[in-house]
Amino acid sequence: MISFFCPFTQSSSVDLTHVGHLTTLPRRPTASNVLNESFSSELYWESYTNQSEWLIVDLGQVSTLQNITIEWDTTKYATAFSVEIANDTNLSTNWTTVQSEKNLTKPNRHINFKSKSLARYVKLNCTKSAASTFLIKHIEIFGNNTLPSPSSISSVFDNQTKLLHLDGTAWKIQRSSENEATPQNTSSTTFNDSTWFAASVPGTVVSSFLKLGAIPDPSFAHQHMMISDGYFTASWWFRRLFTLPPDVVGTRVLLNLDGLSWKGEIYINEKLVGATRAAFEHLIVDITDFIHPPNASSAGKQNVIAILVHTPPHTGPFNIKTHQAPSKDFHYVDQDAPTFLQTQGGKWTPPIAGRNVGITDRIFLSFKKAVTIEDYAVRTDSITFPTEIGVATNASLTFTARLRNRGNTKLSGNLKVHIVGTNISLSEKPTLDANSSTIVSIQIDMKNASLWWPNRYGKPNLYQCQASFEIVGDEKENEKWNADEKKTNMLTWAKTTSDLVSFEFGVRKITLEQSNMKLEVNNRPIRLTGGVWRGAEFQNNIHGPKFFENRARLHQEAGLNAIRNAGGQTDSEEFYSALSRHGILLLDEFWLRSDTAPTVLPSNTSLFADLAKAKMNRVKKHVCLGWVGIREMDGETEEEKKEWKEMKDLLNGSVLGVAEVEFVVYPSDVSVITGEVQTAHPLFVHYTHKFSSDKPIALPRSFILDAPLPLFPSSTSLRQTLSPPSRSAVSLEWGLHDYSLTGDVNGTGFELAVSKFEQKGQTPPTPTGLTLKNSRTSDPVTSFCKAAQIVSYLTAQGLFDAALAGESPGLLFGNSNPAWSTLGSQLYDYWLETGAGYFGVKNGNTPLKAIWKEETHKMDIINNCGRNMMGLNIRVLVWDESGDEVKEITISTQLNATEVKDGLIDLTDLFDESTSTHSNSKNDKLLFVQVSFNQTQAEDYDTGDDFVICDNFLWIGGKTKSWNTLLSKTPTLNVEYVWMENEEKTENKRLKIVVSNPSSHPAIQTRILLLSRTTLKRVLPVFFSDNFFFVPPKGNKTIVASFDWKGDKENVGVLCEAGNADWVEGKEKTGKTTPNKILPAWKAKMKKEEEEEKVGEKGQMAVAEWVNKMRMGEDAKMAELRKKERKEEEGEGKEKKEEKKEEKKEEKKEEKEEKKEEKKEEKKEEKKEETKKEDPTEEEARKKREAELAKQKKEQEEALEAAKKAREEEEKRKTAQKSRAHSFGVFVTFVFVGIVTFFVIFTADRPNITLLPSRMRRGQRETNRQTRDLSTEDTEPLFRTASGDVV
């Protein structure tokens, strides 16, 4: 990890208006010009003051520097500055001045180094300005380095599935404001995209820039606030070339786009072929007529796909969190649903620059003939359960699908359905009209069915179903094809095959009683325990086949069997498939806010309902789908209530009749923690908000939808999350990573619990934050994290134990999958390391449970897997806090599927002074209890499981015990390991690790860590059978670790520590030479971290000042802006009134003059008539003059009326402009980015960082570059800042 001392910004000026990058707004923003985007295209960086301001550029690696070009503002330029360089990552020191300027009278644009300089970091240190600030529009650094370009992966054609995958790194992206070409030209083969940026798909624009090394890693420290929201929140072009494979002749080519955000238009070979209307829309477009046909004459000819992707219209302001203020409740993006709801910043996610604009899911081409198979599934209609051992389980199933004829002629064919591994093969012969679709159903009777069970209740058995449609054709060819299929027992592609699909399904029947949320699967009651999934990854940076597989497996191995897809923020096919394979029931949702009851309706409810129905048709085939739910919705007015009711009815209709699941409306208070429960652990502090031992935990007996659970990461994870100066105190940077003193994390209560272990003789922490101190060690960060691991472990176990004892039908805790580097609730960390909280959850969800009853000093045994347990042996070992074994019990019994054996394990003698044989037994005694279950006889005939072996480990007693002495006694640890055979299914490597404790003190919370010997990086993920475990004196513990490792086994190192013991290195138990030891290097790394963390308060104050300027200053600045705008409006109003008064005066004056003229003319006429009464010629002349006067008067009136209307139209236009400008009420000025334009990267664990050598500015600006040096003209710059229109 790269560590640095400076206040973590790459600029000395960072707040809402002075932003540390060159892609911010062009002038002081107002609420109107930001939201209406009515600002100019030029962007810049501006400092706070006119002295001692600086900027740092990270070139990604050591580079040879030649010169720098700076485009200063013509008035706000530096009259004195210096250029400094450095290679050391400690940027507080080691700067070397290579050029300095003083007393300048005009901007110095070109700086040539006197000699070639080698550096990674370049610092522009401005000491004096010609004006009140420094303002830079553009900066370029020229030189040479060896940064590699991202490798381009061409299209991959899968001949078995007939899919051409367009995922990968062959894509290019560019901001739409930087592309002046038309969409047609952009999607032509002659278009030049050489200055565009390399991109990875699926992925967002921001995630592509991160892979290029162009922005700092947003998961570290507060660097997510250093990425320009103004630059990335815009429309972007995605473009790539592809060629069709030669063996798809005669097929129709379908473009499959599984998701982009927010919406976009797709162009192929200069033609618009389709468009998406919102995020999460899966698009299938027939592009056969727009591409070069796949025939011999055009084989290898390139095609172009270009997609213009737009951000949602209601992006809203950033939601800035601190350790004192956890989260604001913003609902701006709700109007654009379906969309990514947390991109403004949510309870467990940061604000995301660009609002996840990009291609967010798979994109591929499929090759089919006229008839395609869509919306397919296998539904379980009924199951006949056995009544005795040896009787088979039979099931009645239905295959359903929509057959679509995309051709212009009527077609007949044969629909074949085959269940792989069985003798089930069925067919139907439908006839399809041209350009039409029809739904077909085929009944299936399955004998000896293996049922799908949720985790803990049995095996998640799956079948593979194949369906193909064969167009009537050559009978001989068809006979040969059928014969081949019988040999392989698989459906295969043939010349007459129009479409072939293959998918997994399970046999299971779900019933739900919504009144009490009690669930049955296959006629057995199921207790749901699991977590809330709030998105997969905060930037949608999802790559690799194991992304969802690893996360689903971690849930399964923790004993969980349910995930709630909050707000429907993940809908990838791989997500549903992984959950099905691991026995995880998915409580799915649509795209409405789920942290609280939704308050804002989507602007297009009919589109929302259409996409909801399409989603259900798409995912109904997955056996993991349990039900679909939303929070209770209501409105304040009658009109709002009516709208919400209509919305619920629309969504209910999207589920009913489409999938075999129920639509559930959760009560708004479903996660309120109330009621009573019989048992609790004294360290389970979260729900009482105090460290109390005389009060039981209060949990409801109802279904708990979203229980807050603070699970703190390990010290290794914390150090990869926070910058060194911020680690030594609970400060604002902790708040940015979701750790707050109030709210769901309840840091005040959590720190109070930690203090029982950690802060001897000190008062509990106050709500202002905790400074980490310890009397045992000089490393407060490690010490605090060790104590926090104990609290996380016991809190997690206590929550699930309390819910089980309280007979809750289900419990889900908040945020089991961390979508980013959070310090709050998480089952595992962002990098998939499992902390102590994970194993506390695992210990609370074993198939058999021992529940401690504080009031009776006995333990109940509860069946937590719904299966009959025959031949059950129970062994109980009890140690005191000194590690002495004080009791051993063995019990043989059996448990029925739903049985509870009250008080089966009796420990009263250890707490009764009169009968106890243990000298120190008191009611406040702390005991460690291990309960081991071993099943020797299996009689459960329909789950597929044979035996159950599991352990429960409990901390009991210790009501008033002084916990801080628990970790003061240090044991001795020895670690040996041997390599085992690889896992059969995954090919993961496996280690058997034995930790022994020859000392007389117990090892508390013992932890195994696997590292790479060459890089000292963590091996992740690792699936441990147990971790953070207890090792008694003279005892040992055996652990099995499984992990994906492609390198040499010798390069894996094993380290071990305990809560009360330092790191030791494991030794391989073989005759081989021991590899190089890694413990000295690891300790040196930890010591360096500790030194950097000692800057403590100085760093905290810097971050506090920085964040306060952003968060606390926002409202004041907005108020000032609005006040100013109101004054402007009032001033404009006065001017308008004066104008109207003047206009009225002029009108009256004109009318008066006209009347005067009329009277004069009338008098003249009267005189003429008196003198020439009988003259007919004169009479004609008079009438003519009167007609001319009338005409003139009419023209004048029309002119006046036209002028009046024009003024009124102008007034209306101005009023409408003002109305639009102020209709939003809030504006987004949150466009910071330390130096995104500088493309700075301080990223963790990424040695070779690529800096963008491309141009991010408008083409016409090239004409302004004629004065640059020849050396500059002839050299491509190492680094350029970003500039361009904000769209």
- Structural Rg: 36 Å
Secondary structure tally: strands: 55
What structural category do the secondary elements indicate?
A: alpha+beta
Uncertain segments are 1-42, 671-698, 759-777, 915-922, 1096-1119, 1172-1176, 1214-1287
Q: Number of helical segments?
A: 19
Major sheet size, sense and barrel closure = 7 strands, antiparallel
Helix percent reads: 10-25%
The percentage of residues in β strands lies in 25-35%
Outline the structure in words.
With 1287 residues, this protein is of the alpha+beta class. The strands form twelve sheets. Strands 1, 2, 3, 4, 5, 6 and 55 form a seven-stranded antiparallel beta sheet that branches. Residues 1-42, 671-698, 759-777, 915-922, 1096-1119, 1172-1176 and 1214-1287 have low confidence and may be disordered. It has 19 helices and 55 strands. The two termini are 36 Å apart. Strand 41 and strand 42 form a beta hairpin. Belongs to the glycosyl hydrolase 2 family. The chain crosses the membrane at residues 1224-1244. This is Mannosylglycoprotein endo-beta-mannosidase. Keywords: Glycosidase, Hydrolase, Membrane, Transmembrane, Transmembrane helix. InterPro entries: Beta-gal/glucu_dom_sf, Beta-mannosidase-like_N2, EBDG/EBM, FA58C, Galactose-bd-like_sf, GH, Ig-like_fold, Ig-like_GH2.
Describe, in short, the structure shown:
The protein is of the alpha+beta class and 1287 residues long.
Write the layout of secondary structure elements.
Elements: H1 31-35, E1 45-46, E2 53-72, E3 78-86, E4 96-101, E5 110-129, E6 135-144, E7 156-158, E8 163-165, E9 168-175, H2 183-186, E10 197-201, E11 203-204, H3 205-212, H4 229-232, E12 236-242, E13 252-257, E14 260-261, E15 263-268, E16 271-276, E17 283-286, E18 303-310, E19 358-359, E20 363-368, E21 371-384, E22 394-405, E23 411-419, E24 425-428, E25 431-432, E26 436-446, E27 463-471, H5 475-488, E28 497-505, E29 510-513, E30 518-521, E31 524-526, E32 528-533, H6 546-557, E33 562-565, H7 573-581, E34 585-589, H8 605-619, E35 625-631, H9 638-655, E36 662-666, E37 704-707, H10 715-719, H11 724-727, H12 732-736, H13 747-758, H14 780-805, E38 810-817, H15 836-843, E39 848-853, E40 858-863, E41 869-880, E42 885-895, E43 900-906, E44 926-937, E45 949-957, E46 974-980, E47 989-997, E48 1003-1012, E49 1022-1024, E50 1029-1031, E51 1035-1043, E52 1052-1058, E53 1061-1065, E54 1067-1068, H16 1079-1093, H17 1097-1171, H18 1176-1222, H19 1270-1273, E55 1277-1280
Parallel strand pairs: 32-33, 32-38, 33-34, 34-35, 35-36, 37-38, 46-54
Antiparallel strand pairs: 1-6, 2-5, 2-6, 3-4, 3-5, 6-55, 7-8, 8-20, 9-10, 9-12, 11-19, 12-18, 13-17, 13-20, 14-19, 15-16, 15-18, 21-22, 22-26, 23-24, 23-25, 23-27, 27-28, 29-30, 30-31, 39-40, 40-43, 41-42, 41-44, 44-45, 46-47, 47-51, 48-50, 48-52, 49-51, 52-53
Helix pairs in contact: 6-7, 8-9, 13-14, 14-15, 17-18
